[in-house]
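$ fold --in a.seq
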Amino acid sequence: MKEATTGETTPNIHRILKLYNPFGKPAGLMRAQRWIVGRHNYGLTKTFVAKESPDVIFIWSQLRLGLGSAQAAQDSRVPVAYTFNDFHVAGYRSARFGLTPKAFGRYMADNWIFSGITFKGQDFRYSTCISHMLKKSLLEKGLPIKDAKVIYQGIPVDQFPEKAEPGKIRHPPRLLYVGQLHPYKGVHTLIEAAHLIADDMKSNPGSPSLRLGVSIVGDGPEEYKRQLIKMALQGHADIEFFGKVEQSELPGIYREHDIFVFPSTWREPFGLTHLEAMASGTPVVSTADGGHGEFLRDGENALIFEKEHPRGLAAQISRLISDNDLARNLADSARAMVEQEFTLQRYVTDIEAFLQEAAMGENR
């Protein structure tokens, strides 16, 4: 750390490591490139650690960096701590032995020709995961982290002030999705559900005559976006695509909408967007197969539906639209949970304690 003119410490950041494959390009094994970049990053990290003499080395994502830096950190004899926030490290496991030419070739490449490109031999004694689901999944993939702690992430709650009337559903309701636009995020399920609700509102004489609104915030592959845009035009819901927005705009976006929908079809490691919406006083309707399911309580702080089930999603959204008390209770309960359990300060405190334990070599 370095001292700022105000007397506060500011991070001393060095961006010196190389990627073996740039972000934005399709990921691949690229064994030779992993090995080359891994050796490069090993040397840089070894020199840097010797110069800085840290008390502990904290390693986050090694996605597309390879494991050279992690190996140099371990070889330095300085205590090393890891946090796993996604599944990427499983991509560094060694190929299993097999008798077919392809399987045998992969095994030889990982263990002999390009040794060092897998996590074989890495010491993950001090590690954390952001959910029990992620820890279980990484264990199943062979990562030796049976003693890893689960430390849930948190959000800066003060940056997501609660709306004036938490849980209030206006007419027409405005639904919101925030996240990447990939097929496994299930945004197509939201669009189908929105059209079902809009069709019902249109055919029901007692329903408001205004159009149901859906805002989709995020970006992704062009092919999937074209599919979503085509679907959006095939019904009566009013669906808008906003692309990427600045992080500073999100608090206002959450407050401007009535219901936050998260239709992911895969096992998400965690769910920060859920917490942001909850802090903002916007009721949440979500799948719950991943780490986010560890803090969602159906009927208490959110409504849950089965993935890839547009009618089930439509039914849950319709419940909120027609039940003001339910929407308000969900919003109140969700905000209280975030304030008590999922603040950024709580997360920082837990991580600091974990790093202190690693630096002192305690409890292992």
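$ fold --in b.seq
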Amino acid sequence: MTGDVGEEVTHIRQGGVGLWLSERGLIEVTGGDASRWLDGMVSNDITQLAPGGASSGCYATLLTPKGRIVADLHVLARGEGYWLETAPDAVARVTARLERYIIADDVKLTDRSEDFESVGVEGAAAAQLLVRASGEAVDGLARGSWLALEVGGVTVTAARFGWSGEDAFQLLAPRGSGSAAVSALLAAAGDIDAAECSPAALEVLRIEAGVPLLGPELDEEVFPDEARLSEAISRTKGCYTGQEIVARLYSRGAVNHLLVGLSFEADEPPAPDTVLVVDGRTTGEVTSACTSPSAGAIGLGYVRCEHAEPGTEVTAGDVRARVAALPIVPPATPEAAGG
């Protein structure tokens, strides 16, 4: 690519595939009590997970006892236990909080972040590109689940999730082999328009798609339902840390704020943390913002529930804006499995 963020974003939204080599956090959970214990820690039901393409992974959150978000996690069931994929800067606090709850349990936590690097493969033709590069069928791989693939002589864990709103896979490759996997993907592309893209382009794609990120949108001030994280919550499983609060808020429809898209009437968006105002009263704040090549100045933010309807007029500092439906920019294909 040219290095122009707008061109990279347009490339993805018009059917191309973007490749990103990045660092991610990875915690391994092992031991005879791992399944029972971990199910009591995270918000989704992991008891039905097993290695294989059908149900080998899920999205989840780790919550405080008061039901607020410590971190979001992609849980991958391994034969020997589980991997918890998360933001790199969340590993220490996630590990520290989990260790508090290991009492007489046969559970071991290991930071595996230094053993792997992540290759993101995101775009409408992401699955097709992986098939060409690996020779293995991936179309049937469920969202959140994983398969072991060989890409350019590198054995990777290919998990189906991402941040662009398009179909997406994250390839967890042994440390030092990510660049070889990227080269193999590019060599196998043929008529698929695949290219390495910048982190800045992925951030624009994320905001366009309305995907909340740990830090800007997700922290210990936010409940999962405020961030629209229903996918990460089991409404039927037994107790887990924070479950009572989450269930009570859901049953009563009692959250006060909701994550929304924002469309700004300006050439440049206001900065994150800018206060959002309706009729002279504070309703929330901007959490992320960017300039989209197709939608202009946009962002994500939280507003009070009564102001979350698309089309609601708000003010961000001295900039006028409207609440926008999510995703702000739709994916290239309606059946995209990103997120």
